[in-house]
Amino acid sequence: MASDKKSGKSAKSTKSTTEILSEFQMLRNEQRAMANKLSEMEMGLNEHKTVIDTLKNVDPKRKCYRMTGGVLCECIVEDVMPALVTNKEQLIKVIDNLNEQLTKKGIEINEFKEKHNITIQHDMQQPQR
Predict the structure, then answer these.
(1) How far apart are CA 32 and CA 102, in angstroms?
(2) Which is higher by pLDDT, 46 or 3?
(3) Is residue 91 classed as helix, strand or coil in its secondary structure?
(4) Which GO terms of the molecular function aspect are on file (predicted)?
(5) What b/e string do you get for 93-123 counting C-beta neighbours within 10 Å, with b at 16 or more?
(6) Alpha carbon of 28 to those of 24, 99, 111: distances in Å?
(7) Where in 1-129 does DSSP place strands (E)?
(8) Average pLDDT score over residue span 89-102
(9) Are 88 and 48 contacting, i.e. CB atoms less than 8 angstroms apart?
(10) Is the CB of residue 102 less than 8 Å from the CB of residue 32?
(11) Tens digits of per-residue pLDDT, 27-39?
(12) Which residues contact 15 (CB under 8 A, 6 or more apart)?
C-alpha cells in the first residue's frame, strides 16, 4: 500500500513530454476559443450599437421587427429600445469579463511555457536569405 502511494506521487510529478505538450496545446486551444468568442461578442455589440443609433432618429411609434429566440416579432421602436440598451450593457460586461479571462489565460500559458521550458518553432526561426 505504501509503495503504491510513492509510485503514484512520482508519476504525477514527472509528466512525459507528450503529456506536457498536449496540456500546452489544450491551453492554447482554450485561449483560441476564448478569442473567437470575444470576437463574436464584439460583433454583436457593434450590431447593437448600429441598431440603437439608427433607431434614435426614428419615430418611437414606428413599427420595427425584432428577432427573439429565432422568431421575428413585430414591435414598435419605443418597446424595443430599452431591451436593446439593456442587451448592449450586458454585452459590454461579458466582453470585459472575457478580456480579463483571455489575459489570465495568456499569463497562464506563458508561465506554463517557462515552467516546462517550451519554445515555439516559429519563435526560434530567423529569416533566411
Answers:
(1) 9
(2) 46
(3) helix
(4) unfolded protein binding
(5) eebeebeeebeebeeebeeeeeeeeeeeeee
(6) 6, 15, 13
(7) 63-68, 71-76
(8) 98
(9) yes
(10) no
(11) 999 999 999 999 9
(12) 23
